[in-house]
Amino acid sequence: MIAQSKKELRQLVKQLREKQDIGEYNIKSAAIMQSVENLAGFRDAATVMIYWSVRGEVSTHDFIRKWAGKKRLVLPSVDGETMNLKIFEGSDALIAGDLYGIPEPDGPLFKDHKSIDLIDLIVVPGVAFDRNNNRMGRGKAYYDRFLSSVIAKKIGVCFRFQMFDEIPADENDIRMDMVITD
Question: Is the pLDDT of residue 181 over 90?
Answer without folding.
Answer: yes
